[in-house]
């Protein structure tokens, strides 16, 4: 929660500095952002590669655990596809690329900005921050009406870090392992889905 | 697309090879620094884009709609997977009483069954 607030603050500072036209032109050059993006992706990979919880979780719960990320992905895409009918100015693939952020707002918004510009990138940032917040705030309600896997699916890629404590609190500690596994799989899939939809 | 995959793949390989050394511990903090840097850049490009600024409420509404759609969709699928593969299965393996399949079973029962089958 605290970290997301810091992220929003950093984003807001950037907006304000640009509005006041206090940014030096050299920093507006897209090349730096591209290289920092590659560094980010490399670090994301490193985090996935060095994690040791993945196979332990699989052994513990068996193969039904793999259905959780599948449910998250299928449900998100179906819901977003329906909503895209209500948004006249956006194509289906643009909406799906925003949905494919799975609450991983930093990575998805940066990728989308790189490929489609700041406008859709900002939609992605806001939408995916809202998704993370919804889990932090509504997790008990989700468990009550949609079962114990609900905050895991709603949390998307964040279930391995920011929303993990909330999930173990309201779904039970045994769901922490599922959340870790789920977070790693979704985390890994975010850049793949986002670039896939933007290339369609 | 290719450089993106390449960056992740080399990252995973590096992370896996160095998973037992100390320096992978710093990946998380390094990651938040890089994310902050990029979000700052995103803020700058948002702020200098007149179209985005003049239509910020519209963008906010779009984001809200997409969030509600995506989250609700995933919640519904999670409910189905939970009922079909998690709640039901555990109960059946614990005790084969048909009472457990009734929708009236309480939250506490759920809890107990879950913990027993894992512990």
Structure keywords:
heterodimer, A: 200 residues, 11 helices, 79% helix, globular, B: 119 residues, 5 helices, flat, disordered C terminus
Description:
The complex is a heterodimer of chains A (200) and B (119). By secondary structure, chain A is mostly helical. Helices cover 79% and strands 0% of the residues of chain A. Chain A has helices at residues 2-19, 25-28, 30-50, 53-61, 67-84, 92-99, 105-116, 118-146, 150-155, 164-170, 174-199. In chain A, helix 3 (30-50) packs antiparallel against helix 7 (105-116), helix 6 (92-99) packs across helix 8 and helix 6 packs antiparallel against helix 11 (174-199). Chain A is globular. Chain B has one domain (29-118). Chain B has helices at 2-17, 27-47, 50-54, 56-94, 107-118. The model of chain B is unreliable at 90-119 (pLDDT under 50). Chain B has 5 helices and no strands. Chain B is flat. Classes of the chains: A mainly alpha (200), B mainly alpha (119).
């Amino acid at each position: 929660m605290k970290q997301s607030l810091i992220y929003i603050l950093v984003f807001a500072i950037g907006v304000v500095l640009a509005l006041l036209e206090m940014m030096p032109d050299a920093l507006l050059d897209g090349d730096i952002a591209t290289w920092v993006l590659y560094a980010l992706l490399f670090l994301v990979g490193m985090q996935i590669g060095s994690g040791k919880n993945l196979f332990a979780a699989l052994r513990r719960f068996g193969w039904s655990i793999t259905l959780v990320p599948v449910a998250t992905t299928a449900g998100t895409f179906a819901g977003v596809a329906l909503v895209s009918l209500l948004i006249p100015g956006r194509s289906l693939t643009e909406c799906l690329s925003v949905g494919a952020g799975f609450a991983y707002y930093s990575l998805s918004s940066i990728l989308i900005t790189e490929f489609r510009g700041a406008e859709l990138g900002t939609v992605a940032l806001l939408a995916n921050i809202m998704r993370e917040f919804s889990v932090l705030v509504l997790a008990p309600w989700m468990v009550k009406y949609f079962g114990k896997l609900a905050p895991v699916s709603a949390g998307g890629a964040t279930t391995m870090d920011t929303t993990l404590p909330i999930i173990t609190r309201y779904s039970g500690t045994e769901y922490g392992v599922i959340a870790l596994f789920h977070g790693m799989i979704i985390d890994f899939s975010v850049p793949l889905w986002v670039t896939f939809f933007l290339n369609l | 697309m290719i450089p993106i995959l390449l960056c992740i793949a080399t990252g995973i390989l590096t992370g896996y090879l160095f998973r037992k050394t100390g320096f992978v511990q710093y990946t998380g903090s390094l990651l938040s620094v890089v994310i902050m840097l990029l979000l700052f850049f995103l803020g700058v490009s948002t702020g200098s884009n007149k179209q985005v600024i003049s239509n910020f409420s519209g963008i906010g509404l779009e984001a809200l709609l997409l969030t509600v759609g995506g989250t609700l969709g995933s919640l519904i699928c999670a409910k189905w997977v939970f009922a079909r593969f998690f709640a039901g299965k555990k109960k059946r393996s614990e005790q084969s009483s048909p009472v457990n399949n009734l929708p009236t079973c309480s939250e506490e029962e759920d809890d107990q069954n879950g913990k027993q089958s894992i512990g």
